Amino acid sequence: MQLLYHRQPVVLNHEMTLGSASAGRFTLPLTARYYQTRSRITAGQVSAVATYTLHYD
């Protein structure tokens, strides 16, 4: 799986500045997709977990 922010791959284990919530609400435009890492693939099951830490001031 690959995590995307505004359709661009997220670099894992790096800080990202996402913006500010002026009205008290903020939507994170994050999506995930299947990502091929080998030239040859076979059918099978997949499961993934994404954990993120959010800091705000």
TrEMBL record:
One of its GO terms (cellular component) is pilus. InterPro entries: Adhesion_dom_fimbrial_sf, Adhesion_dom_sf. One of its GO terms (biological process) is cell adhesion. It comes from the Bacteria. This is Fimbrial adhesin. It comes from Klebsiella pneumoniae.
